[in-house]
Design a protein that fits this description.
The protein is an alpha/beta fold. It folds into 2 domains: about 200 residues, Rossmann fold (3-Layer(aba) Sandwich); about 160 residues, 3-Layer(aba) Sandwich (Rossmann fold), CATH 3.40.50. The chain is about 40% helix and about 20% strand. The strands form 3 sheets. A 7-stranded mixed sheet has the order 7-6-8-9-10-14-15, with helices on both faces. α9 runs parallel beside α10 and α10 packs across α11. The radius of gyration is 21 Å and the shape is globular. About 55% of the residues are buried.
Length: about 450
């Protein structure tokens, strides 16, 4: 297992699952049949899952979220005896959020890693460069790339369990419309991650017949954004839709408060994280933050045997994920990372092969709906059912994993508020159908 090279932002988000219901790590770790099983020892060579994501650089928060999904998944797989007698190991590779840096890292990974069976990642910045390389190598990839270009992808080895970035922006527009906001200001960082959601915001605002009164770009980490704040205030918006890094946002909104007043803020999934929440709340005050801020975030996980299994894995692997482990319980990216590895493992069992060229064709077989299928929520349950000759549908931490013909599983989103104790409260579920209807 390679050492991790990580600095910078590490926390992603804590959460509630369901409106008004606070769920922490301790409360959902329970006894569920098939969650943790002792496996027989094996002499077969281990297989390896690679996390290819940013641990350093401008999107370094991705690394903690990926680790917090993959390590618990591998724990559950190995506790259930491994995959076809193989235990699973993890190697981590740092893309630094830079496509140029990521290429040699991935080339080396593919050339030197024994028994590599799958990849989790890369993130948005590196995905357009790395996904084609992995696809050409016939390597199954559970990507975190949010680009709309993957919505109709022909990469047969690429699978995506997160909504595309524009869908998050359109969900924000759905929420704004429901709240009666007709004058919208867009305030987005110029970094690639922040810019990914902007097209969806612009499309959603137009489709909802609202007026875009300002479209402001923020170069990250400047000492002042006074001119940009003045332009926003002069446009008299009813709501600001936004994404940037936490430091940039804190400076911008602090100056807004100094020059005028705070208006309602709707943030993307990337704002529902401690490294954004904490500096912005400090900049504008807890009272204004609670009054004005709502995030629209990916996923609306519900308590199930899958979430119990995930929480048990988090507890067992707490030393390997950014503390506190409880913050990851309802993190949509961590949950997607967990589900992606479990799906790969079940597909290998169904295919009776750990070769991506073979098992990749079985991913839909273990996730799609079907008459007579046995619904399973954990790797151990799925493994046992497959061993009995049954056909299965895995329902995971993120809910049903239903891939379309382009291998995308989008799912719902939710409007969320942050409580005083840093929990996330779901105030409105925004369905995939509502997002598509707006588009």
């Amino acid at each position: 297992m390679s050492s991790k090279k990580r600095t910078g932002r590490r926390n992603f988000r804590g959460g509630l699952v369901g409106a008004g219901a606070v769920v922490g790590l301790a409360t959902i770790v329970g006894v569920v049949p098939g969650v943790v099983m002792g496996g027989a020892s094996t002499s077969k060579s281990p297989v390896t899952e690679a996390i290819v994501i940013a641990y350093t650089g401008p999107t370094s928060f991705e690394g903690g979220a990926a680790d917090s999904g993959v390590y618990p998944a591998v724990y559950q797989i190995n506790k259930a005896g491994g995959i076809l007698g193989h235990q699973m190991t993890i190697t981590t590779e740092d893309t630094r959020g830079d496509p140029a840096d990521a290429v040699p890292v991935v080339d080396k990974l593919l050339a030197t890693t024994s028994n590599l069976v799958g990849v989790t990642g890369p993130g948005t910045a590196s995905a357009p460069t790395i996904v084609p390389i992995l696809n050409a190598a016939h390597m199954t990839d559970m990507t975190w790339g949010g680009e709309a270009s993957f919505d109709r992808s022909n990469y047969s080895y690429m699978w995506r369990l997160i909504p595309p970035d524009p869908a998050n922006g359109q969900a924000m527009a759905v929420w704004a419309k429901e709240r009666g906001y007709h004058r919208v200001a867009a305030v987005f960082g110029t970094d690639s991650g922040s810019q990914g959601d902007l097209p969806g915001v612009l499309k959603g605002v137009a489709a909802s017949h609202a007026q875009l009164v300002a479209n402001i770009s923020l170069t990250p980490d400047q000492p002042s954004y006074r001119a940009e704040v003045e332009r926003v205030l002069a446009s008299h918006p009813q709501v600001i839709m936004t994404e940037s890094d936490g430091t940039t946002a804190a400076t911008f909104f602090a100056e807004m408060k100094q020059l005028g007043h705070i208006v309602p803020i709707i943030g993307t999934t990337a704002t529902a994280i401690s490294t954004w929440i904490n500096p912005v709340r400090s900049a504008i005050g807890s009272s204004d933050f609670a009054k004005y801020f709502t995030a629209v975030a990916d996923g609306t996980p519900k308590p199930s045997a899958a979430t119990v299994a995930y929480a048990a894995g988090l507890k067992a692997e707490a030393s390997k994920v950014p503390a506190p482990a409880a913050q990851w319980v309802t993190n949509p990216y961590s949950g997607a990372g967990y589900d992606g590895v479990i799906v790969q493992a079940l597909a290998m069992d169904a295919a009776h092969s750990t070769s991506p060229q073979t098992y990749n064709k079985f991913i839909n077989a273990v996730t799609a709906k079907g008459a007579g299928k046995t619904v399973v929520y954990t790797y151990a349950q799925g493994k046992a059912a497959l061993a009995k000759g049954k056909h299965i549908q895995y329902i995971g931490v993120t809910g049903p994993v239903l891939f379309d013909k382009y291998r995308n599983a989008f799912g719902n989103e939710a409007a969320e508020q942050i409580t005083a104790s840093d929990q996330i409260k779901v105030v409105r579920v925004i369905t995939e159908q509502q997002i598509q209807a707006l588009g």
